[in-house]
Write a structure and sequence with these properties.
By secondary structure, the chain is an alpha/beta fold. The chain folds into two domains: about 270 residues, pyruvate-formate lyase- activating enzyme (Alpha-Beta Horseshoe); about 70 residues, Arc Repressor Mutant, subunit A, CATH 1.10.10. About 40% of the residues lie in helices and about 20% in strands. The protein contains 15 helices and 14 strands. Helix 1 packs parallel to helix 2, helix 6 runs parallel beside helix 8 and helix 12 runs antiparallel to helix 15. It is globular and about 55 Å long. It is found in: Cytoplasm. Probably acts as a heme chaperone, transferring heme to an unknown acceptor. Binds one molecule of heme per monomer, possibly covalently. Binds 1 [4Fe-4S] cluster. The cluster is coordinated with 3 cysteines and an exchangeable S-adenosyl-L-methionine. Keywords: 4Fe-4S, Chaperone, Cytoplasm, Heme, Iron, Iron-sulfur, Metal-binding, S-adenosyl-L-methionine.
């Protein structure tokens, strides 16, 4: 199960935002995230807010679309009453969990509500996550016909013993099939990988990368496995049943991914993400990294508007109760102070290829740039031009770079 939500102020029942959150809102993009918290099985490494059928305790998948639509309508009313300018959604992202455990028609209904309440900007990016074994060709056609433009498949690995260690249930041979179906439906395709799984060798990782490249997706995400407290994987490692992930091997895996993906025509644009070109980057995720606004719909979903952040009740039953009562599903809210917003700006901006303007750093951060160049962590050429961009070594040590930039 996922960990507790952060401590903060209670969220108001009416959801209204403070006036300051809407300053310059018209200059920020608006995205919508829809959390679908259902999974067939709980993967051993996962600490996301997800629930199998036995954990729903009175909540139901069949009623979820109507509940989410209730929050979408509530969100539109809150933003209007708070004085927000009309802004169509630039991006919509259905994540989870496994959104495609719901019928495709339910996902299309929820998207239709977003279109009706907010509008969709011309060329809006609309993504759903999916497992390779949770969709068929008809599902993907229905999603495309209903306005989805992109699907992100949780491939994770092409090697059976690695998938088994992660408790992933799909057959890797199904990935080429679902990619083909998505292409035939007119959807852009992203493939998501995890590296550093206990028992995974560098050769195993090469096999997965080569399998991804053979499918020619538009976008690839590759995330290092993080062992989260409270997960099945953490317990297996603690008992000695699985080896602790090797940081040096994980670094080698990252470098191999960058080499092979780069040779295949993919450019990194964020520490863990590569795309065939600027148009294939995940615009929704870029909105997070650039500090735009988004409304998160669903149990445990987080939202952010102009430095105000809030999060919903985690369990689907508690979420449904609040939606049914006509009150905000949010249970906590915080207004970020200037120091926290600056820390997050540096942390997130540094992760993307465009980097951060050196002149925007405080004096200590500007002084740190020369040392970061000398240590091979940021690009010398771009630093001289006034912008800090991570080298590949810097990407591996991104957290250390940020700490140095934030030192006084």
């Amino acid at each position: 199960m996922a960990g507790p939500l952060p401590l903060a102020d209670p969220a108001p029942a009416d959801g209204l935002l403070p006036r300051g959150a809407l300053d310059q809102a018209g200059q920020r993009a608006l995205g919508v995230y829809v959390h679908v918290p259902f999974c067939r099985v709980r993967c051993g490494y996962c600490d996301f807010n997800t629930y199998t059928a036995s954990e729903l305790r009175g909540a139901s998948q069949s009623g979820y679309a109507a509940q989410a639509i209730g929050e979408i309508r509530f969100a539109r009313g809150v933003l209007a009453a708070s004085g927000a300018p009309d802004r169509p959604a630039q991006t919509v992202f259905f994540g989870g969990g496994t959104p495609t455990l719901l019928p495709a028609d339910d996902l299309v209904r929820m998207l239709g509500s977003i279109r009706e309440e907010f509008g969709l900007a011309p060329g809006a990016e609309v993504t759903t996550e999916a497992n390779p074994d949770s969709v068929d060709a008809d599902d993907l056609r229905r999603l495309s016909d209903g306005g989805f433009t992109r699907v992100s498949f949780g491939m994770q690995s092409a090697v059976p013993h690695v998938l088994a260690a992660l408790d992933r249930t799909h057959d890797p041979a199904r990935v080429p099939l679902v990619v083909r179906w998505a292409r035939e439906a007119g959807l852009d395709v992203s493939l998501d990988l995890i590296y550093g799984t206990p028992g995974e060798s560098l050769a195993d990782w090469r096999t997965s990368l080569e399998a991804v490249i053979a499918e020619e997706p538009d976008h690839v995400s590759a995330y290092a496995l993080i062992v989260e407290d409270g997960t099945k994987l953490a317990r297996q490692i603690r008992r000695g049943e699985l080896a602790t992930p090797d940081d040096d091997l994980s670094a080698d895996m990252y470098e191999l991914a960058d080499d092979l993906l780069g040779a295949a025509g993919y450019e990194w644009y964020e520490v863990s993400n590569w795309a065939r070109g600027d148009a294939q980057r995940s615009r929704h995720n870029l909105g997070y990294w650039r500090g735009d606004d988004w409304w998160g719909v669903g149990p445990g979903a987080h939202s952010h508007v102009g430095g105000v952040r809030w999060w919903n009740a985690k369990h689907p039953a508690a979420y449904a109760d609040r939606i049914g009562a006509g009150v905000s599903p949010a249970v906590g809210r915080e207004t970020l102070d200037a120091a926290t917003r600056e820390t997050e700006r540096v942390l997130l901006s540094t992760r993307i290829r465009e980097g951060i303007e050196v002149s925007s750093l405080h004096a200590g951060g500007r002084r740190a740039v020369a040392g970061l160049v000398a240590d091979g962590l940021v690009e010398a050429r771009t630093a001289l031009a006034g912008r800090l961009t991570l080298t590949r070594r810097g990407r591996l040590l991104a957290d250390a770079v940020v700490r140095r930039l934030l030192e006084d």
